[in-house]
Amino acid sequence: MIDYVGGRSAANHHPFGSLFKTISVLRIGAGVMLMTRHGWTAATGAYQLVWKEENWDWVKSFNDAGLPYPAFLAPTVALIVAVVALSWITGFLTRLFAVVFIPILIGFLIFSPQSGSIYTEAAWLYLLISFTLLLFGSGAISLDKLFNLGERWSRRPKKRKGW
Question: What does 60-125 look like in DSSP terms, one character per residue?
């Protein structure tokens, strides 16, 4: 991005102004939607299954899809979905959790028995968002940026041999 042209420097920008010039809007919006629509209910359902031994429809869905160990796999996927959503909201290790989330989404698209459902459309959208976050990172307003996580190795000064 060009901050200034010629001899005139750009005006000092408000830090939240850069929020709309970055991928942070996509990351935070997708994280909030993933948490409110899928992550929170999945995490509470997994909690009910593991600690209170109540029935959960995800276990039945995983079993119907022919996946092995549905009582173990369903809470694991629920935990991953909730952690990915939290990661996207805060911007912490965004690329790592995008990579972790992509196989979950591909697995859902492969094993989903209802190919025309609204969840399939959401899975495709989250897959595109994951791929975008994998390519572009977390943006300017994130914990990654605050702690300089994921900086490119090429930006660091290289040590020369023999000096």
Answer: HHHHHTT-S-HHHHHHHHHHHHHHHHHHHHHTSSHHHHHHHHHHHHHHHHHH-S-TTSHHHHHHHH
Residue 46 inside a domain? The answer is yes
110 lies in which domain range?
25-149
Q: How many domains does the chain have?
A: 1
Overall pTM surpassing 0.90 (yes/no): no
Radius of gyration from C-alpha coordinates of the chain: 20
20 vs 105 pLDDT, higher one: 105
In a domain, 2, yes or no: no
In a domain, 117, yes or no: yes
Which amino acid is it at 17?
A: G
| pLDDT band for position 160 (cuts 50, 70, 90) | low
Residue 9 has pLDDT above 70, yes or no: no
In a domain, 163, yes or no: no
